[in-house]
Amino acid sequence: MNKWMNISVAAAVLAVSMLGSGDTRASAAKTAAAESASLTPAPLPPLDLQKIRDTLSGLPNEQATAALVYVGTPTDSWLGASGVSDIRSGQPARADGRFRIGSITKVFTATVVLQLAAEHKMDLEQPVQRYLPDLFPSDFPPVTVGQLLNHTSGLPSPVLPEEVTEEDLQEMNWTPEQVVRLAFDNKMEFEPGTRQHYVNINYFLAGLLIERITGNPYELEVQQRIVQPLQMTNTYMPGSDTRMTGVYAHGYQTVEQEGHTTLADVTEGSPSFTWAAGQIISTTSDLNTFMTALFSGQLLPSGMLELMFTVPEVRMWTADGSDAGMANLSMGLMRTTIQGITFWGKTGARPGYGNGMFATRDLQRRLIYSVNSTDAKGPGQNQLGSRIGMAAFGLKQP
């Protein structure tokens, strides 16, 4: 079942200005200028709402039980829902439902860190060890705050103790310090600043930086700096609470039980092992509010905002040494160019939920989706989400 709503919205204007002084800002300006000079963006195809409806048809199926979508242009926006919120009752999914946004949380975290840098309360060029001297091993090289945000730190990921399973992560309540120490039992992956590797530990440390600099809990800073000013009334940070509240579509995971394939309800679970990297619960409309405010300069001064649209000129790191290509992550966002169209944003996944938040930089097209994928963290991940994105941006399906 599909339900669509049409809501008029005011046009959003994105002002892009030059960066200020400083090594990071100067480098960002140089990179941005080079990219602008060498890339001629393709015209954005008209929005075809019927293609998006067609993409969402047929839910629930083996791959997903529901999908929620928000698509926006400067003059209109559309909310959609397909599938069921509960496979037992068959209740239709609601377009205003909440979901676990996963790593889209990182965009909130990066925004707060950049706000603190703009307020001169921390320096992106300074080593994290200056602010968190009690956490780092003495033999680790200096890692700057900026390198945390754009995943060029080289820091290792945590390895779970043998007695802890992936399922245990849904039950256990971890402190951020415990997760960091699990990571720091391992060796650095590469020299800071020379490669890019997307790892959650960078944003655990970013969350701890926020707490050390402000003296407040991470959740409170995000609430006071972003959620409350933007009146995102359906967005919250659950902390240690494993439940979801309000209206939401249940998340499910395909499992094998006694030789049969079934769906396990994974809606509830501890967010502590993702914390400042992935704990937030929100809606498509609230995330559109956040993304629009961020891209249009309401949350950051121009120099800091530019860092969120600047990708370091390094290659991706792989454990086996294979070439994974050039970096595509900035300080908080992901850059994607398909068929000549470049859009920015972030994906995020938690068990039962595969999500995306993307827009062209000028906000001419905006998309937020959440797919209740039956294998959201699996190797195939979110195929339906990819098809939704291609349809929303008018791209040809592969």
**Which percent band covers the strand fraction?**
15-25%
Sequence of secondary-structure elements? EHHEEEEHHHHEHHEEHEHHEEEEEH
Please provide the count of β strands: 14
Global morphology: globular
Overall number of domains:
1
| Spans of at least 5 consecutive residues with low confidence | 1-39
CATH homologous superfamily?
A: DD-peptidase/beta-lactamase superfamily
**Oligomeric organization of the protein chains:** single chain
Percent in helix: 25-40%
Structural class given helices, strands, pairing? alpha+beta
Helical run tally: 12
CATH topology: Beta-lactamase
Gyration radius, rounded: 20 Å
Summary, kept brief:
This protein has 398 residues and is of the alpha+beta class. It has helices spanning 23-38, 49-56, 105-118, 128-131, 145-149, 176-183, 201-214, 218-227, 275-278, 284-295, 302-307, 383-392, and strands spanning 2-8, 64-72, 76-86, 91-92, 99-100, 195-196, 252-257, 260-265, 281-282, 315-316, 334-338, 341-350, 353-359, 366-373. Helix 2 (49-56) packs antiparallel against helix 12 (383-392), helix 3 (105-118) packs across helix 7 and helix 6 packs across helix 7.
Structure, explained:
By secondary structure, the chain is α+β, with helices and mostly antiparallel strands. The protein has a single domain (2-392), classed as DD-peptidase/beta-lactamase superfamily (Beta-lactamase, 3-Layer(aba) Sandwich). It is 28% helix and 20% strand. It has twelve helices and 14 strands. It has helices at residues 23-38, 49-56, 105-118, 128-131, 145-149, 176-183, 201-214, 218-227, 275-278, 284-295, 302-307, 383-392, and strands at 2-8, 64-72, 76-86, 91-92, 99-100, 195-196, 252-257, 260-265, 281-282, 315-316, 334-338, 341-350, 353-359, 366-373. Strands 1, 2, 3, 4, 11, 12, 13 and 14 form an eight-stranded antiparallel β-sheet that branches. It has a two-stranded antiparallel ribbon with strand order 5-9. A two-stranded parallel sheet has the order 6-10. Helix 3 (105-118) packs across helix 7. It is globular and about 55 Å long. The two termini are 26 Å apart.
